[in-house]
Every structure is written in C-alpha cells, then in structure tokens.
Amino acid sequence: MVPHPLRALSLEETKTARDVILSLHKDVVVDFREIYLQEPAKEGMKQFLDLEHSLRLSPTSKRPPRLAKCQYDIVGSDRIPEYHESIVDIDVKKRVKHEIIGKERQASLTLWEFQILIEACKKSKMFQNAIAEFKLLDGFELVVEPWPYGGLDFGAENRRYFQGLCFAQDTRNGNADSNFYAYPLPLIPILDAHKKEIVRIDRLATGGKGDSLTGKTHSERIIDHCQPAEYVPELLKNGTRKDVKPINITQPEGPSFKVTDESLVEWQKWRFRVSFNPREGAVIHDIHYDGRSVMYRLSISEMTVPYADPRPPFHRKQAFDFGDGGAGNCANNLSLGCDCLGVIKYFDGVVIESDGEPRVHPNVICLHEQDNGIGWKHTNWRTGRAVVTRYRELVVQFIITLANYEYVFAYKFDQAGGITVEVRATGIVSVVSIDVGKTSSYGNVVSGGVLAQNHQHIFCVRSDPAIDGHKNTVLHEESHTAPWDKVTNPNGNFYEIRKTVINKSTGLDAAPQHNRVIKIVNPNKKNPISGNPVGYKFTPPPTQKLLATPGSIQAQRALFTNHHVWVTKYRDNELYAAGRFTLQSQLEIDGVAEMAKRNDDVTNEDVVLWSVFGLTHNPRVEDWPVMPVDIFQLNFRPADFFSANPAIDVPSTKNTSSVLVEKNDCCAGKQKL
Amino acid sequence: MVPHPLRALSLEETKTARDVILSLHKDVVVDFREIYLQEPAKEGMKQFLDLEHSLRLSPTSKRPPRLAKCQYDIVGSDRIPEYHESIVDIDVKKRVKHEIIGKERQASLTLWEFQILIEACKKSKMFQNAIAEFKLLDGFELVVEPWPYGGLDFGAENRRYFQGLCFAQDTRNGNADSNFYAYPLPLIPILDAHKKEIVRIDRLATGGKGDSLTGKTHSERIIDHCQPAEYVPELLKNGTRKDVKPINITQPEGPSFKVTDESLVEWQKWRFRVSFNPREGAVIHDIHYDGRSVMYRLSISEMTVPYADPRPPFHRKQAFDFGDGGAGNCANNLSLGCDCLGVIKYFDGVVIESDGEPRVHPNVICLHEQDNGIGWKHTNWRTGRAVVTRYRELVVQFIITLANYEYVFAYKFDQAGGITVEVRATGIVSVVSIDVGKTSSYGNVVSGGVLAQNHQHIFCVRSDPAIDGHKNTVLHEESHTAPWDKVTNPNGNFYEIRKTVINKSTGLDAAPQHNRVIKIVNPNKKNPISGNPVGYKFTPPPTQKLLATPGSIQAQRALFTNHHVWVTKYRDNELYAAGRFTLQSQLEIDGVAEMAKRNDDVTNEDVVLWSVFGLTHNPRVEDWPVMPVDIFQLNFRPADFFSANPAIDVPSTKNTSSVLVEKNDCCAGKQKL
C-alpha cells in the first residue's frame, strides 16, 4: 500500500533514505542527525488533495514523490565534521538535493552530542580541578546537565559549543531520581564539540542585591545551605496526600473518533491528518470540517526561552527548543492513565541513531476525547425547558522534556468548529547558586541557596489556513468608541467596527484595548446568511514581547518575537519562525521577519499566519520543586464560516453515570442535605 | 442548632422576617421583593471566625446577630408603591433598620413585575392596534419578552418603566419551545409599572447600511423572510448527530470533598463556606487553605451589557444583570448529568413570592470535582522516570438565564492553591428585525430578517482578600526592558522588575505590554524561603473597556467599567460595583468609582479588589440560534504564599479506568495500530 503523501516516513522508508546517503558518502564517517519526511511541495499536494477529497483518487493518479530530508555530518580525515542536508527520493532511491551547510550555521543538536559533553567533563583535568574546589557533603555526586550554548557573543569564533550546568545529587537515599536541581554549583564547563574537549570553565557569580555582576563571593561549601526538594513520591517526607479519590473516565461504547492509515483522524465532522517529525513534534494537516477546507497545516513552529540574569555567562541561557534540539526528539513516551484519561489512541514516531538506524519512538502523540463542561445552553424561562449540551473536545497532545523543563502541547478540536492550540508549561524552573541569606533582582530564591532566574517563554504557532480554498485574505477588525453625533450617534451608545485588510506581508500586534481580532477570510465566497466573506478568526493573546534590549544577541536571534502576528505569503519550506538554524545563532536568518520583509501581496493569496505569545516568568516559591501548569491558549473560531452554530445538533443527552452525593459519602451535620 | 452566621436564611428565618415586616405595616398592602441574609458586620464576624478557626467556639460565645434584609413595596391608598428596605433581627424578631428609598432610586425588578407587562400588553388597545399592523402568517402568535428599561434619558421623569421586545412564535409545530427569537417584530411597548399600563409604543427602525436611524422601511409582512431557528432537539430538521458516544465520569469511592452544615466545604486542604442570595447568586466566604486565611469573601458583583445600535430606543438596551434583576433570582435549577458530571452535591436557595412566602429554589448551585488535564509533570531524562499528576479542580457553579441569554459562573479551586473565577457566555443573542436583503453596521445578520446587534458584556468580580489576616497591601509588578549598561546590563539580556505599591484607593488598568501583575500581600508576614511578603496575585485580563461615548447614559451608569482593577478600603455593605440601585439609573451612585474616590489609605489595611473584564461581542452567524460558550477566566494564584508548590504531594496515581483504543472500536486500515 502506498503511504499517504503527508504520512511520516516509516522505518523502511527511513532505512532506504539512510542507505542512499551512505552509498553516496563512502570513504568517510557519516554521523546522522535526523531523517524525516520532506513534505511535498504544495502545488502537487493541492492537486493530490483535490482528487482525494473528491473521491477521484485512483491507483494511477499522480502522487507527490516520497521524499526524505537527511541531516548528517561528514567526518573526513581532518576529523572536523562538515554538516550536510540532502533530500532523497525514496521511490527511486536517488538524492534529489544536496546542500553543504557552511560554517556559519550550526546543525540542531542531538542527544549523542550531549553525551560527548558528559564524557569530556569526566576526562577534563581542568574541570575536575574546578569541581574539586567545592567541598561536597559525603554522598553527593556531580551531575552535569548539557545545554545549548545560547547565542555566540559578538566577535566570537563560530565553533560548535555546548555548556554544562552543574549540580550535586544526594545519592544517600539510593534513588536515582533524587532532585539534584536543589544543589546547584557555580560553574559551567564549555565543550568544543568538534574537539570533544572542555575548553573553558565559566565561573558563576553567586551574590545578591548590591553585589557586582562578576567576582566570587561564595564559599567552597556553597551547597551546605541547600535543602532537599524531592518530587518523586517515595522521597516525599510526608508522603502523598491520601484524600484524592479517583475520578474514572470511561467510554463504554468506545471513542467517537476513527483513525485510519495511522494518520487520518475523523471525529464529529472534523477530518485531518496527524504527522510527527523530530523538529516540530505533532503537526496537523489538511483540516476539514464537514467536507470544507479550514487549514492546510497547523504546527508549533518555534519557541525561545531567554533568561534575564545579566551576570555573564547567563546571557547565553536562551533556548530555542524547536530549532536547537527538536520538540519531536524531546517528546515524551506517553503513558496510559497518566498523561491523558479515557480511551486513548497513541501514535508512534520514528527517530534515528547516529548511524542512521531508525527506531520507533513509541507513544509520542496521544489522541483522546474529553468533556470540557457546558457547550451551549438555553432555558426557555416561560416553559422552564432547558436544553444543555456538553463541550466535547478531541485532543492531539504531545509533551516535551528539555532538561529541567516540560511543555504540554495540545491541538484541541471542538464540535462548534473551533480549534484551540494549548500550551501548558511545567517542569522544574532553571536555577543557579545564591549565597546564603541573599536575595536577588535577577530572580527569586525558591529554596536555600537556589535562585530561580527571571525568564520568558515565547511561542510561535504557524497556521497555514485554507478557508474554503487556498486563496485567502487577512484583516483585522477593531471596535472603537464613536464620537457624539446628533445624526449618527444621538445617545452615545454606538461603537464603530473598523476593518483593515492586510495588503502586504507584515508583522502586527495585539491591541486588546481595541478588541483587535484577526480574521482570515475567503474573499471569493460569501456567507449565505450574513453576506460576509466566510472566515475564521483569532484574538492575538496580548502577552508581553521579548524584553531583551533591542540589538542584544538575545533579541537579534529572536526577531520573530517582535510582533504578535505575522502575515506572510506561502512559500514551500518556510516553516520555522526563527529560521532553519537557531543553534548558536547571533541573528535570526530566513525567519519570519525576513519572510514578512518581502512585502508580498497577501490579499486573495496563499497566506500563512504566525501567532506569537508567551509568558514572562518571574518565578514564585510555588513553582518549586516542580511548577504547577501555567496554561496558554490560542483560539481559532469560525466567523461566518458556517450558516449557524455547527454544534446545534449535538445531542443534549443526560449523562446517566452522574450521581448525587450520598450523605455518608461526604456530608454530615444537623441539616438535611 | 444555631446556624452559622454566614449561612443563608432558612425558610423559617425568612418567614420570621416576613412576619415582623407585616406586623409593622398593617393597613397597607406589602408587596415583597426580596428577603435574604444581611451578612454580619465584619468586625463582629472576625471575632467569631477567630474563635471558630482556633476551635474555641462554645455555646456561650458571642455570635453576630442573624439579620434579614427585607425589600418590599408599600402600597397605600394612593396605589403608588413606595419602596422600603428594612433589616430585621431574626433572633429578637425586631426591625433594627428602616429605610424608605426615595423616588430617585428604583428597586430591582422581580419576575412578578414582568407578568404585569405581559398582562398590560394584552389589555392595551394601543398595543393591540400596533401589533395588528403586522400580517403574521397563520399559526404565528405574539410573544412579549420583558426587559428592564435601561437608563432613563436625560430629563425624563423617573417613573418605573419596563419595555417589551416583541416576537412571533410559530405554534404550528405544537411545541412551546419553538424558537420565537427567529421572528422579531419592530416595536417595543413601554409599561408604566405603577399605573400597570402601556404608555407608549416605540417603533423600531429596520433598515440597513445607508438608511436613517429612524423611520419605517419595513413592510407589514416583515417576518415573511424569517426562517425557523430551532434548537430543541425534537424540532431539528435533521435531528441530532448520532456519533457522540458517551464519556462517563464516575467516582467509585465517592467525592473527595465534604460538606457539612449545608454551607461548609472542605476539599484538599481548602475550607470555605458557600452561600446564596438573590442578587449575587453563589458567594464564597472565609476561604482558607491548610488552616491559613486567603479571602474573606469572593463574589460576582455586577455585570453590564450595553448594546451599540445607535437607533433609538436601542440605547436603552443595557442590562445590569445582578443589580437589575438579581443573578440569584435568575439562577437555573440544575440538573444531574447535564450541567455537570460525576458525583454532584447541589445546594438549594430560598426565594420569596410577592406575599413574602418563602420557597425553596432547588439545585441553584452545584458542587463537583473535575479533572483538568495534567497538573504538573517532570521526566528525568537520564533515568526516564516520569512523575505526572492530574489537575483536579473543585467547582462551585451556578447558571443564570436572563430572557434570551445565559451565563455559567464557576468558582474553581485547585490543588496548587489557585482560585479561578470562570464565566461562560451562552444562550441566544439579542436580535431585532432587519429588512430583507439589507446588512447593517450595527450588528450581523444571523438569520433571514434577524439582526444580532453588537454589544459588550462587562463583568466585575469582587474579592475581599485576607492573606494570612485582614491587613493587606496591594501592589503591581511589571517587567521592563533595561537599557544597555556596561556595568548593570553588559549583554542586554537583563529586564527589570518594577513594583509599585498602591497607597490610596484607586482604579488602575491592565498593562499586558509590561506584564502587569496585581499582587495582594500581607506586609507583616514574610515567606521563609524567598523573604518576600506572603501573597496572592492575578493578571488583570486586558479586555476592552466600555465603548459607549464618555458622558453618555450608558457610560455614566457603568462607571465601574472605567478601570480593569479597583482597590478600595473595606466598608461594610459595599458589595456592588455599579451601586445598590442600577435599574433605570442615569449615573452610577455609591458604586466602586465613588468608593475609590475617597482616597483612603490602603496599605496594610483591609482592602477590597474589584476586577473588571469582559468581551466585545460582535456576533457571528455561528452564534445562532444558541451560541457556543465563550469562556473568560480570572486566575488568583499564590505568589510566595507557600513554601513550595502545594500540589507537590498530589499522588501520581495511574488511572486504571483508561484504556487503549481497540482496533474494531475506531481504527481501520492496512497498517498496524
């Protein structure tokens, strides 16, 4: 059976691609980084999807070629790796594109490179001597946590670096999951990844308010005033709470969704495809509702997490979790009854080892339905008749772990035609040492000797709409107070709706004071009821933009954070808001800011929207040791796309499993229940 | 047993109060409006609660008196009702306060007044003649929907008016719940409530873009181009969808909460009281977590819904759903398995008839637990060990119906110390006639001949914090870009946190561009970890403020909408953001704007916070005939109140009821699952 063009590469296809690459690079070492589907060019894909949706697809129909994007280092006799990207046509087993990436760009990191850092630390005399300066308590052992190096300083040579954050782990409890983040050590070894050597140790300031940005103030016994901060249940001093009784979610008739071809999801008039790749994690394709096209592609494109502690080298704490390490690579293998409840369908991914050998990355995406309270309700107060429906959602979820931190990403589809992209931030906040008794302007003391530094998380969701077709127009709609006017506003209650069409590719901002709503419409098709063009809308979350000083490395490499919304004209392969190569970047190159600068016509064109939102996270003590989720949502809603509320036909069935509390269950007292 | 001082009045107490009032007004007719608990003055209550929480309460302890607030009209021989408010001490059966409200204020409306409008329409020749101008199709019958009159025009005599929105109902299907809103008629009868007569008929413009604000353009057959818009399932043309399989939520071990004394709720270290009154609906009192005080009182204080259609008399469409009609009066009687799922505890309310006879208003509040996805998670990538907990919430919910529209209000408590106030807007949008084929700048055509007018919903949540005691301080915290500085910001990554203490009572606004967060702290108690004062925080939702022209009646009577946040110094009986009397008001009197103007010291004082947020609702076709919920949240979160994440001891128990999809359940295709 021929795979659907949007389906992720199978193990076999991945192997084929690997073999083609190996056959082309014979007398050298090939260290593979990634192999994954190179999605078809849109023109060919549009033709294919037209056939598919009109049920005219036949075995002889023209199909876009199955292409594999292969990323790898070639290590020649000089032992300096050279980074290549190739595209292999799987069907004909041929390379169709080959690009040697120059020295100016760094490939995304892989987990095997993290291992190099760990090994190099063990071998480095310089590092061992530095560590020996600290008197660790008996039973404490060193943990090195590899991080990307952040942006290269101006003028620095663009070698490939990694940095290691150092902690001590209390091993006396014999539990490998004892929380070492509670014992930070104030030094950072720097790896030259090509030399595989620690080339420098950065010493960290540990002072507080009033202390200088550099200079040692800490004693060699700095972790003595740290305290345990355990989160694994068997290490909690008082155990877990005993009064949480189970909430069971069962679906006795099975789920309401259908999954075929391991990628095609059908649920409640929705139909879309799910794929998975190492950079973006779960991606949603070809979204239709009731046979009508809504979006061509929906993905989380990028995020950046800059830290605000001005003391060098903390300015290099700035991750691009999609571009640097790959959200798909970092995706959790999800677990039944923990990460989601009910009847669950999991999707596997395929990842590769450095020898290019593919393996299944199991349960990287979960799919399930959930109840989210009341969906719509109306009571006729004359008759007392209430009609109430539930808000049922279908959730495509993946979760990534990046060293200390986690993100839960979900695409949620609802019965009223809405699509919500949700991000939950959780995990352990990034911390550094602080001297006993001090406080800081750069973060909050969340545990003895532990400073959680102020930082931001800024996300970018890329949506490639196809509202009843690929030619769409973007406009923003605002509501404005109108002046008194005897004729047009005699009582002062009128407010004016202003619509502004976005004619050229650009960036624009949220404007909650004007209730600015972004609409994506198909100017060629009118709603039969309202006469307005059919469309979808979203309100850009007016979250704070990047705070780093304009012109700083942190700001320059994340130009995508300069606006809440970008509107660009579609081009194949433009998927990444901060550009293809973010690792160690000093400047965002080929990112969305550049795409927007082309000044393309974007009315009645194939447009792409990029929504940027996030949080300024100045940690609370309550974020320690693992922070409760902070939840962010981007809501796409139909706006005159349908002829009525599409959820009006949801049955208002009474759920028969709900019961009244029984008196002996929960309630006591002298009064009747 | 003596009722707790915060418990709502029982049937018996209500009767006692009624009888005291009747005994004091003998030779007149007394038309009762409301009788409900006059909450104790705070000073006495503080002493009582101190005893209660320190377990020193004894039968001889001093208790605040049980007081009833009684609202009623006295109808003397001149037949013009005079509105009175009295406070009755239940224990001693004595009136302790009596206030005759002047003519300048209007009492809240009651449902029996709505009935007067209906009857007056039937009796009014003028109205019957006006209706006869329309040629209704056979089988269509008139429906008059009573509304408050909105703000009195400048210079108008302050008589008591009601207005009726007119619709035709298709009775041919024999279903009393056939949706009459689909057939609006362009006239509004005006009732003089004291005379009980229709005194005027307002004719409504029905034109579109380019038409004047007044003047008739419609034909007598205006509803001929209207279409059915049914939502009750038995009237749906194609029935309800068949593919929604049940999601059952069961709690085999019962709920985790405990309710005693019909008002005291204990759940997961939370402890608070729930009461119900006709104006505010459900109110939460005396909120503690793990024995520590968080809030004295939390309530929805007010909301206003101004309509933006400038054509007179639509400027009078402006409801204050709490002050005008009473959220408690309009509360739905909730239904098991429909309005919430799982194990449900319902609370009843007590309301009165016009003769003062109390009756139980059953199931006006529901209490239940729910699962809201992942609560916190961390995976140790070295060992692969994931610890993941669920986000369990306890929900206190009530739902109100105001003619066409509904709001679902919920107070949600979570295991991480957070309190969320949630509003869901649903129901049927308010509509008026529009001529066939026209469109309008004042709203959207959502069905043939039906214009859904642009409007806003602006809510005010009142929180009376008591962070580890009643003396609290409010500050706002912002994050700001810092300039380059060789010494303090050498790499440009630093951002500065600015804290500003609110010294005097005032209004202030959301500032998302600066990540403005409002913190309520107890300046007398420091967090032992961070050294910061213990506190709670919330981010003011930066939603659009009232759009009506400054100085207009709509704006003047809703001055509370001028700011996103108000900080005032506590005074007894100051509960209502738009003042005690909103019905027909021309100006907000004794509302929060006045309270703030006192310029009270509010540092280390008993402070009250008022959070104003809402939505500008320019209707979509998808909002018809019943709109999918639009969801708004205000999130109170601990900020250095605790010494760690209070949910860290939530067990990471795997839910055993979750299952994998089975192939024949949902999935097909040639590929392995």
Automatic annotation (TrEMBL), chains A, B:
Q: Which positions are catalytic residues?
A: 321, 405
Q: Which residues carry the post-translational modification 2',4',5'-topaquinone, per the record?
A: 405
InterPro entries this protein is in? Cu_Am_ox_TPQ-bd, Cu_amine_oxidase, Cu_amine_oxidase_C, Cu_amine_oxidase_C_sf, Cu_amine_oxidase_N-reg
Q: Which Pfam families does this chain map to?
A: Cu_amine_oxid
Which E.C. number(s) belong to this protein? 1.4.3.-
If you read the UniProt record, what top EC class would you report for this enzyme, in one word? oxidoreductase
Top-rank lineage group of the source organism:
Eukaryota
Details of cofactor binding: Contains 1 topaquinone per subunit.
* GO terms for biological process, alphabetical: amine metabolic process
**Among its keywords, does the record have Hydrolase?**
no
Q: Which cofactor does it need?
A: Cu cation
Q: Which residue intervals define the domain Copper amine oxidase catalytic in the entry?
A: 247-648
Q: Which GO terms describe its molecular function?
A: copper ion binding; primary methylamine oxidase activity; quinone binding
Q: What UniProt keywords are attached to this protein's entry?
A: Copper, Disulfide bond, Metal-binding, Oxidoreductase, TPQ
PTM details?
A: Topaquinone (TPQ) is generated by copper-dependent autoxidation of a specific tyrosyl residue.
Question: Its quaternary structure?
Answer: Homodimer.
Q: Which family does it belong to?
A: Belongs to the copper/topaquinone oxidase family.
From the Swiss-Prot or TrEMBL record, give the protein name.
Answer: Amine oxidase
Organism the protein comes from: Zopfia rhizophila CBS 207.26
